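Milestone M4 deliverable, item 7.
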Amino acid sequence: MDGTLPTSLTRQTSEDQPLPFVAVVVGIDGDRPVIEFNARMVSARLAASCLLQPAEGDSVLAVRTAADVFVLAILERRSETAATLSVPGADSVTLAQPQLALRCDTLEVDAKRTTLRSQVAQVAGRTLSAVAERLDVVARTLRRSADHEFSHAKTASRTVEGAENITAGEMMLEARSALSQRAGIVLVDAREDVRVNGERITMG
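Output delivered:
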């Protein structure tokens, strides 16, 4: 199928106007749908306005010109083939609207690179999972609030340039081998007891 129209389809006079007709997609030849009408099969092109990619078995609206046959729209899809939206001949697509809403049960985004820019971004959900080899978060102010928080790492490092304040009802520090604390001045203030237990205690 080379896309060449039969002679009977290309005969037009200057007064002839292209008339749309209904055809059926019987196959896909590369990026061109093969349509059948009037017992003829023709390899057609997709019009730029045909955003829904055709599939075998679709009923389509087509039009013939002096040079080619164009599929203008998909009229009916009888099969359960998943729908694919694409603009023929375009390298990129931009949706420009003051408001845009996506509503679905499942949303899947598959891309080599994803960039999101927003003055205000909100993500709400019962479960939020992020899996990455590296995760970088840069912010002037970072706030976290949770009823329970768990963190696990093989190696952890934390640097605070200014002051760090920790307030807790109870705090436990436990190390399997050694616990080291270094400071210019160390103050220990307790309302009741201060206990130091160990087989050997060295001070000074």
